[in-house]
Amino acid sequence: MKTVRQQMMALLAGSEQSAAELASALQVKEKEVCEHLAHISRSLSAAGRKLGMRPSTCRKCGYVFADRRRFTRPSRCPRCKSTFLEEPLFRISDD
Ligand SMILES: [Zn+2]
Fold it and tell me: How many angstroms separate the alpha carbon of residue 31 from the centre of ligand 1?
């Protein structure tokens, strides 16, 4: 029986995943996914790998949340105040 974190790493190694997708695949809360992502990111960097994040973007004005390092999703666009945001996507990369 694999742990949630092991299952999450297997999903992230295969393709890009959003926190919401991981939450529904693993039957856990999105908040819990974000906590696991933080741990996964740390253990990967200790092993010379990394958890890549494609940043969240605003679907209304195209603003990119490029500086964001947290794993939770932003709630609103700082430029146009829209809450219609694309979720960040995560994937394990080897570079
Ligand atoms: Zn915007």
Answer: 24
Domain spans of the chain?
Answer: 4-93
Kindly give the distance from the C-alpha atom of residue 26 to the centroid of ligand 1, in angstroms, as a whole number.
31
CATH 1.10.10 fits 4-93, yes or no: yes
- Which of 40, 68, 39 shows the shortest CA–CA distance to 54? 68
Helix (H) or strand (E) holding 58: strand 57-58
**Could you state, in chain order, the average pLDDT of each consecutive group of 10 residues for the chain (95 residues)?**
93 95 96 94 92 95 89 91 95 82
> How many A from CA of 13 to the centre of ligand 1?
30
